[in-house]
Design a protein that fits this description.
12 helices; 35% helix; nine-stranded mixed β-sheet; 11 strands; two-stranded antiparallel ribbon; alpha/beta; 2 domains; Rossmann fold
């Protein structure tokens, strides 16, 4: 890496030196300047502003180097452009040839048919919601004892068709993060509706559990700080099936996530293929990647080495992966994972020409990921 590049340490060091000089000048030099007139106060004001700007720049450079938001000066000033997307397919992914699968109809309980009567939702459910509606509740897993907030999106037709079942997308956020990112930053419900209206996706239910209590990087695993894999795969799935109208087939269940949530999404589908037959992974990875001083399972725990799992067990799951071309951490993990994928597992990778690790790189590809899901699953297909 060139010494002048955005994430190179000499750039951070130079900014730190300039900050130190500005602080010394503002604190020790200028206050002793005894020349009369407004120039003295103007110089002090300029020094204070310069210290503030250099402080912000130093913090940004440090955090950017750690998180790879912007990988280069070109990426920083690209205005959201990432260049063309290169797509490759490994394994058995084939275009869907069958007609959309019929959705379940009838046989649901009163609780499933009438979500407004569900005590978990209370008065949140609106009778009319032409764009769908988000409802939230705190859920305690019976087997794990873990309590987390959960967001559920009910699609527009959900209340109007109380005898119809729906496919399910289970979504995960990055760390640190919360389900609010899907609601406020990614506008995920609107993206889903856009794909539905284009005829590329059938209306799904979307369920987003909050997986990071008290800033704990759980990595969604069963570890020393709690059984978060079991919380989702056992407790939450059981609640969804009992309280919402869903499809029984794993082809009607998918996961999605970004960054650490991308890891969670693929982990759940690979380890639980009888529940989720597809996953969408935005710049995630394929084995746990803990934050500093947070390691709740061994780094080499064989349960969570997804490359070894797909090579050994060959789960029948379809994985869609996207990354910015300069986002090194997920790309390195992908390079180790991809060669181990083989039928009936499939991996569709999408990598841009350049771009780092941030939402505005991933957001434009959300629709493409949902269109892919509608293309490979009869239950998510609209036509």
């Amino acid at each position: 890496m060139p010494f002048y590049e955005l994430t190179a340490w000499p750039v951070q060091a130079l900014c730190l030196v300039l900050l130190a000089v500005a602080v010394v000048t503002a604190v020790a030099v200028l206050p002793r300047h005894r020349s009369p007139g407004p120039a003295k106060y103007l110089l002090q004001a300029v020094a204070i502003v310069l210290v503030s700007l250099l402080t912000l720049l130093t913090v940004f450079l440090k955090l950017n180097a750690e998180n790879q938001w912007y990988s280069s000066w070109a990426d920083l000033f690209a205005g959201g452009s990432t260049g063309p997307v290169l797509t490759t397919v490994t394994g058995a992914a084939l275009p869907r040839e069958d007609d959309p699968a019929p959705l379940p109809h009838g046989g649901f309980s009163a609780l499933q048919r009438h979500p407004a009567s569900n005590p978990a939702f209370g008065a949140q459910v609106k009778r009319r919601a032409p764009d769908g509606q988000w409802v939230s509740f705190a859920f305690t897993g019976p087997s794990t004892g873990i309590t987390r907030n959960v967001e559920v999106w009910l699609p527009p037709s959900y209340l109007a068709h109380p005898e119809q079942g729906y496919p399910v997308i289970t979504a995960f956020t990055g760390y640190p993060g919360s389900p609010a990112t899907y609601l406020k930053s990614l506008h995920y419900a609107q993206t889903v509706l856009d794909e539905v209206r284009r005829g590329r996706l059938r209306e799904p239910l979307v369920v987003i559990p909050d997986m990071y209590p008290a800033n704990l990087d759980t990595e969604c695993v069963d570890g020393s700080e709690g059984k978060y894999e079991s919380y989702v795969a056992v407790d939450l799935v059981d609640w969804i099936k009992k309280n919402l109208r869903t499809v029984d087939s794993p082809q009607g269940w998918a996961t999605t996530g970004y960054s650490a949530g991308g890891w969670c999404a693929t982990m759940f589908s690979v380890l639980h293929p009888r529940q989720w037959a597809a996953s969408i992974n935005f710049a995630g990875y394929f084995s746990p990647d803990y934050s500093p001083r947070q390691h709740w399972v061994r780094a080499d725990d064989p349960r969570y080495d997804l490359g070894a799992v797909v090579a050994r067990q060959k789960p029948a799951v379809d994985i869609w992966f996207f990354s910015g071309g300069d986002d090194q951490r997920p790309r390195h993990s992908l390079a180790a994972f991809a060669p181990r994928v083989g039928a009936p597992t499939s991996l569709t990778t999408n990598v841009t020409a350049f771009g780092g690790h941030r939402l505005d790189i991933w957001r434009p590809q959300m629709g493409a990921s949902l269109a892919w899901l509608g293309g490979i699953s009869r239950y998510f297909a609209s036509r």
